Amino acid sequence: MIAIVEYGVGNLFSLCSSLRALGAEAEVTGDPARLRAAERIILPGVGAFGDARRKLDEAGLVPVLREEASRKPLLGICLGMQLLFDQSLEYGAHPGLGLVPGQVVPLREDLADPALKVPHMGWNRLEILREDPLFRYAQGGEYVYYVHSFYAKDCASSTLGVSRYGSLEVPGLVRRGWVWGAQFHPEKSGDTGLRLLKAFAEIEVP
Asked: Which residue of the set 6, 16, 68, 78 is catalytic?
């Protein structure tokens, strides 16, 4: 079973529908016991980093996610990916889960071209930097869908794939141990996104 973390941040319907369309058993839950019982966990999220971290704390899920991430596959999506890092500088400094080294910073500050719009919204090619089980059914150059105003930085050692926004390389996929993160939305990325989710659902559980 894949547990999709419910903590009051984001619409989880499309993600749950995508997984079920692949034949994967998926459950939306904020129950620590169900998260511990799951074979895999997906941490979604939209909105502000500080608010999302506060809600995780209030729900008592931070220690649960840190514990489970050491022994089973966990995938963070969009804001869920950003929460995996050490900290975010989104409207102040906020601690992340510390599962992937790096920080989350404003996209605008690092864009060389002031004409580029923020948020970065739309389809971009994903360039694969290193092989990984998540790419079992995908290949470099396929398009994925982004919606974000902040991005991960100082995480080169964990970066699996990038997309270019102007001259800036945006980490699109990262991994450390059993923890993966996707800045783009697989559930909104058409057939490519479904194949990435399928690969995640098939990663062998230790």
From this structure: 78
